[in-house]
Design a protein that fits this description.
This protein is α+β, with helices and mostly antiparallel strands and about 180 residues long. The protein has one domain (about 5-184): 3-Layer(aba) Sandwich (Aminopeptidase), CATH 3.40.630.30. It contains six helices and nine strands. Strands 1, 2, 3, 4, 5, 6, 7, 8 and 9 form a nine-stranded mixed beta sheet that branches. Strand 5 (about 105-115), helix 5 (about 125-135) and strand 6 form a beta-alpha-beta unit.
Length: about 180
């Protein structure tokens, strides 16, 4: 992979590569969205799952970074994360109410997903470590969860806690949600 930072790792006998998304990955990413189960889809919704949105985010904007995990044997994307540089404007009042001083240049907003059959196999953890290294190297100082995490999603809440995220507070939107952030 010419000059594209990446990591390789093994899980469950499968070789996986994690790297930043490239323009040629959009069709694979659209295919990935079709494989997400209803529960995963209900918990991951930072943007629409269509070509126009992906083009807008990854080809026409400098405000987003995308990361993918690809299973080497099949060439399929098995995990996807999007980073928005800065914070979500519609969340700013709520985030400030927790005492945060938001910084559009040093904060970033994080939304991860792992396809159903690859959850709990270490893919999310390996991917997050790669993303974390990239964000620190780029000078970011804080990661904020995109729209929080659904409070009843204990697996995700525990993942974030184990990764060092701290709870900021809770809010109601289609159920209870927990805002969390990680200071870098």
């Amino acid at each position: 992979m010419e000059n594209i930072p990446y990591i390789n790792f093994s899980t469950g006998g499968h070789q996986v590569v994690v790297r930043k998304i490239q323009p040629g990955d959009l069709d694979l990413l659209l295919e990935y969205f079709t494989y997400l189960g209803p529960e995963t889809r209900s918990r991951f919704g930072p943007h629409a799952f269509d070509r126009e949105t992906l083009i807008q985010i990854y080809l026409n904007s400098l405000n987003y970074l995308g990361y993918i995990a690809i299973e080497n044997e099949t060439g399929k994307i098995i995990a996807y994360s999007v980073i928005k540089i800065g914070y979500l404007e519609h969340d700013s009042d709520r985030l400030c109410s927790y005492g945060l001083t938001l910084d559009a240049r040093k904060d970033c907003t994080y939304a991860p997903s792992v396809s159903d059959e690859w959850q709990s196999l270490g893919v999310g953890k390996a991917m997050f470590q790669f993303i974390l290294t990239s964000l620190i190297a780029s000078g970011f100082k804080r990661i904020i969860l995109w729209g929080g995490v659904q409070s009843k999603n204990e697996k995700a809440v525990n993942f974030y806690r184990n990764a060092g995220f701290r709870k900021l507070g809770t809010f109601e939107y289609k159920g209870m949600n927990t805002d969390m952030c990680l200071d870098l």
